[in-house]
Design a protein that fits this description.
Largest sheet of chain A: none
Number of helices of chain B: 13
Strand content of chain B: under 5%
Low-confidence stretches of chain B: none
InterPro entries (chain B): ABC_transp_permease (IPR001851)
Radius of gyration of chain B: 19 Å
Low-confidence stretches of chain A: 1-11
CATH architecture of chain A: Orthogonal Bundle
Shape of chain A: globular
Strand content of chain A: under 5%
Function (chain B): Part of the ABC transporter complex LsrABCD involved in autoinducer 2 (AI-2) import. Probably responsible for the translocation of the substrate across the membrane.
Number of domains of chain A: 1
Helix content of chain A: over 70%
Largest interface: A-B, 62 and 59 residues
Subcellular location (chain B): Cell membrane
CATH class of chain A: Mainly Alpha
Number of helices of chain A: 15
Shape of chain B: globular
Oligomer: heterodimer
GO molecular function, one term (chain B): transmembrane transporter activity
Membrane topology (chain B): Multi-pass membrane protein
Order of helices and strands of chain A: HHHHHHHHHHHHHHH
Number of strands of chain B: 0
Order of helices and strands of chain B: HHHHHHHHHHHHH
CATH topology of chain A: ABC transporter involved in vitamin B12 uptake, BtuC
Radius of gyration of chain A: 20 Å
Distance between the termini of chain B: 22 Å
């Protein structure tokens, strides 16, 4: 799979540099964002007034979190993907509400936040071990953990139950910027380290990276762990939003997060894209849902337009890529 | 030729696991090898294996098809609806299968032609199809299955005096046809060639784009066939009927030893994979486990099986 991506990606640095400066490597997602935001504000000014931004962001947060979490695994290339992000969020949700709050009676943020992140990291380490040390194809490895996590969540939590503490619910309202901000801060810090360059190098061409002395396995291992860490954070955002433990909600985030990532211009073949792009892709999907829900169209039309915009946006991004490449080739020859 | 023998070994391994699981079930659960349960497992495994034909071809080609469950649901609902409106069943089949071919060709054309990951194209197209079908039926599909179709897939049916429905002998013919298609025809050799190395295939005057379009069309075709067969199996239409097949087709292909990187694999392996999954599911449910525990155990077993023989080479061996 990555072989196909690499053929277009290699040797066209100029084209990529141009593209990066023009569209900041997020494809058509930023443009779509502006259009959709304008439509939304026009349709429903009250909902998009500054006073409501906290709640609004809280509503979008789990999807943004899931998209951001899915990104590092993709960036590593060679079929890197983590489809267990959604179920891991659901599992974190169940552990936090059921085990910590209901069974142990612990509701301090200083216990719950580290615990949620730790569960996420543990899930990420398992995926990383399976996909990089055992070298099972990532989609199959994470399909396995997907099924295990969904099964485990349903076993400990057959039906929705429990309530989230006040401080957590506020993280989906007034303070919704806080968890997302922390995630972006962590990723920003990672981008300042050599690790980020190594990840992008491995994603672009793992063989070249390996011969250049990059520890390919270690780099990919860490990318799955980061995905797990962010999934833990996204699980907290989900808990904050729904305010209870619900076994059915988490798994639904997997496919929609992958769509958001692709919409945001992250190459599913690795080595290209950004977390910001993925977040914008997620916000696009949220805004689309929000506008169509306001127009009171049936969920069926919502589904159709969501699929159509996804296909259209990636086709346009691919066409634009191709155009840039051809222009670069002509300029080069 | 060497890679072929690896494929055969892997397919054989998966068959042996299926047989071992069956013996385990017979030992542990009373009535596991009864005529009824054997027939039920055969029918379920056949349906899964037919749904996985497309996934096998597409994965050997180097892609992946996530639109299979949506096309299954589409064929299921549309054929019931049209048949319920009084159309002849054969006309219904032709319409549904032709539409499926168009959907699949679109998948292959877009992802192959623009070099977009098929994961996202098939997912997007699948979402559009599901939404359109729901819109058309307003969420409440009606219609029914013709009696001949129900008879064809019924667990209690019989064919040529054998205690299995016609589906099973037909399915065995399909296995032979698909295997011959892959191993003995130019089309089959081209699928392997493109999956191994698209650029080398192009130099051998194979059009990767044409192969992608054709193969994704075939994939959607067999997904639609599964959808129609499932209509006969359950008796009424249900748009979500294909959902379990999303990951099960991938799991069947991988357990059967087909590598997700493309260029290797066999349909016999997938058939063995479908048998393994069906046996495992029946065994775990027969042991009285909750569906949620069955799901978790299935995940563990998939990881275990694939770690035994489906591992990727280390990057240092690829240079």
């Amino acid at each position: 799979m990555s072989e196909r991506g690499a053929t277009t990606g290699s040797g066209h640095r100029l084209a990529r540099a141009i593209q990066r400066s023009v569209f900041s490597s997020a494809g058509f997602a930023p443009l779509l964002f502006v259009i959709l935001l304008a439509i939304n504000i026009w349709l429903n000014p009250a909902r998009f007034a500054p006073a409501a931004w906290g709640t609004l962001l809280g509503l979008a947060a789990p999807l943004i979190g899931a998209a951001v979490a899915s990104t590092p695994a993709f960036l590593g290339g060679r079929g890197g993907i983590d489809i267990s992000v959604g179920p891991l969020m659901g599992f974190v949700n169940a552990i936090v509400v059921l085990v910590f709050i209901q069974m142990l009676g612990v509701s301090s943020p200083f216990a719950i936040v580290p615990a949620a992140l730790l569960v996420g990291v543990a899930g990420g380490v398992v995926n990383a071990f399976l996909a990089t040390i055992l070298r099972i194809q990532p989609i199959v490895a994470t399909l396995g953990t997907y099924l295990v996590l969904v099964g485990a969540t349903l076993t400990i939590l057959p039906a929705p139950t429990g309530t989230a503490p006040q401080w957590l619910s506020q993280l989906a309202g007034t303070w919704s910027i806080l968890p997302l901000g922390c995630v972006f801060l962590v990723w920003w810090a990672i981008c300042r380290t050599p690790y980020y360059d190594q990840l992008m190098a491995v994603g672009s061409d793992d063989r070249a990276a390996y011969t250049a002395g990059v520890p390919v396995t270690k780099v990919r291992f860490l990318s799955f762990v980061i995905t797990g860490l962010f999934s833990g954070a996204a699980g907290l955002m989900l808990t904050a939003l729904i305010g209870s433990a619900d076994p059915a909600v988490g798994p639904t985030y997997t496919l929609i997060a992958i769509s958001a990532v692709a919409l945001g211009g992250v190459s599913l073949a690795g080595g290209r894209g950004s977390v910001i792009g993925a977040a914008i892709g997620a916000i696009d999907i949220f805004l689309l849902q929000s506008a169509l829900t306001y127009l009171n169209v049936s969920t069926f039309i919502l589904q159709i337009s969501y699929g159509a915009i996804l296909v259209l946006a990636i086709v346009l991004t691919a066409v634009q890529d191709r155009y840039m490449e051809q222009r670069a080739q002509r300029a080069g020859s | 030729m060497k890679s072929l023998s690896t494929d055969q070994r892997r397919a054989l391994g998966a068959f042996l696991i299926a047989i071992a699981l069956h013996m385990l079930g017979t030992l542990l659960i009373q009535g596991y090898s009864s005529a009824f349960s054997m027939r039920a497992m055969l029918v379920l495994a056949s349906l899964l294996a037919i749904a996985s034909i497309g996934q096998t071809l597409v994965i050997i080609l180097g892609g992946i098809d996530l639109s299979i469950p949506f096309v299954i649901g589409f064929a299921n609902v549309v054929s019931a609806q049209l048949y319920g409106d009084g159309m002849s069943f054969w006309v219904v089949c032709v319409i549904v299968l032709a539409l499926a071919l168009v959907i699949g060709a679109f998948n292959g054309l877009v992802s192959g032609g623009l070099n977009i990951h098929p994961l996202i194209v098939t997912l997007g197209v699948g979402t559009i199809i599901q939404g359109s079908v729901l819109l058309w039926t307003a969420g409440f599909p009606s219609g029914s299955a013709p009696a001949t179709l129900s008879e064809f897939v019924s667990i209690g049916g019989s064919a040529m005096g054998l205690p299995v429905p016609w589906l099973v002998p037909c399915f065995i013919v399909v296995i032979a046809l698909i295997t011959v298609l892959l191993v003995r025809t130019p089309y089959g050799r081209r699928v392997y060639a493109v999956g191994n190395n698209p650029r080398a295939a192009m130099l051998a005057l194979i059009s990767p784009l044409g192969m992608w379009t054709l193969t994704f069309a075939i994939s959607a075709f067999f997904a639609a066939v599964t959808g129609i067969l499932l209509l006969g199996f359950t008796g009424s239409a249900y748009g979500e009927v294909g959902q379990p097949y999303l990951f099960q087709t991938i799991a069947a292909v991988v357990i059967g030893g087909t590598a997700l990187v493309g260029g290797r694999g066999s349909y016999l392996g997938t058939v063995a994979g479908a048998l393994v999954l069906t046996e495992l599911n029946t065994l775990l449910i027969g042991l009285g486990l909750q569906p949620s525990v069955v799901q978790a155990a299935l995940g563990l077993v998939i990881i275990l099986l694939v770690s035994l023989y489906g591992r990727d080479p280390h990057v240092s061996t690829r240079i």
